[in-house]
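Troubleshooting log. The previous structure file for this entry was overwritten by mistake, so regenerating from the original sequence record. Sequence copied from the archived sheet and checked twice against the printout by T.R.
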Amino acid sequence: MAEESITTTLPTPQNQPPSELTTPDESKPTLEVSARETETAVTTSTPETETAAEKPEVAAEDHQPPKVTETAVTTSTPEEETAEVTPEEHQPPKVTETETASTEKKELGNEKSQQEEETARIPQNLGSFKEESSNLSDLSDSEKKSLNELKHLVRDALDNHQFGSVPKPEDAASAPEEVTIWGVPLLKDDRSDVVLLKFLRARDFKVKDSLTMLKNTIKWRRDFKIDELVDEDLVDDLDKVVFMHGHDREGHPVCYNVYGEFQNKELYNKTFSDEEKRKHFLRTRIQFLERSIRKLDFSSGGVSTIFQINDMKNSPGLGKKELRSATKQAVQLLQDNYPEFVFKQAFINVPWWYLLFYTVIGPFMTPRSKSKLVFAGPSRSAETLFKYISPEQVPVQYGGLSVDPCDCNPDFSLDDPASEVTVKPGTKQTVEIIIYEKCEIVWEIRVIGWEVSYKAEFVPEEKDAYTVVVQKPRKMKPADEPVLTQSFKVNELGKVLLTVDNPTSKKKKLVYRFNVKPL
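Regenerated output below.
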């Protein structure tokens, strides 16, 4: 990113709001510096800076990373002022989140906010839903009885070759049939029990109905040549339409379906213009699903379901008959042959027309199916996803911090946790990171939709040292880059202050994370 020159004026008491973070430092002089947004290694050439650079350094043997805690502060009474922290060996960064009044002119909002309007129009989570345990020891007595009955029927079916597989010539006629589904051989170990449980739950533990569904599924898999399909090298231009990315807070892999990609007429015609293309589309989707399922854990207590996210932004809608036909066929195949593989179905960026569609199909859905559905309009999509998925696991385009695997992020990975803060209307939120060692600190920060002012500073612990402006106050617009990545080399004890000022009448979601690299 382009380097921008930073100039700043020392804040005065009359225009500085009371805060336990800012009050002790008002007497500190402020140093004007230049900073890069992507790599903020601050250097100076003023005499004052040279003096500051000569201050005593932290002993190398202490090696204390910053310590992290979270607090909310609204007043600045003496009792609440931040106490000095005595460095201890290997102490992590300490993070304090402080809320004060906004210093910018607050926007008036007399009408309902967009979020309130969406809440009134769009159904939210349609009931509580707790995923059934895949731990065999958690089954009730009646469920265990149904499972044992189904296993007995499956054993009889295998012994009598009722699943329809053709035995090899060298096999004896009396040898039992061997059937594998999703990489799990039936009746070989506990993984088979978890598979059978899916069919039982799909048929409300009606044993005979479950066996019929299992037989039909195995027959369809043989006719569709699923095992061969998994290993085929199919040409697929739909990597941006359907993809797996990260896990939710409970460990479920997350699958994204981005229907807006089909607004591209070339891609749409290439995928749906004739029957052969629609068949190819179906085969690629089945292959993608099969490969994803085989990565699940079918052991007792393992994660064997997927979190589905459906992005409805710019979706072609119900008017595209080819898409509607292909979707209907795919949904029917999934219902008949892939039971109980969806943990939740989240619909985000939901448009008005989808409400009409839901009004039609809603009455025909079971309460249990409805309870798995989650809906969110455009302004609430990121907030809704964060209820189920940590921000570091959510792709950048959906409000999180995770970049595409094809892109490179040398500073952070999916394993680096992020923190969330709600910035209330007309307030200012300051994140204080206390540093206990010489290091380079790197952070990522974003506010969903921005429309806020953001600044970053380093305040040395030494009383008469200069406050270093890492990022001068910048009004961030919705069109600005979604995530800012900045860094600062710390040569003395002190704290980094990240401040977000929200002058709007809407609450904002602040997401940030940081890493420390000892020098």
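Confidence is low (pLDDT under 50) at residues 1-26, 33-62, 69-88, 108-112. Archived copy saved in two places this time.
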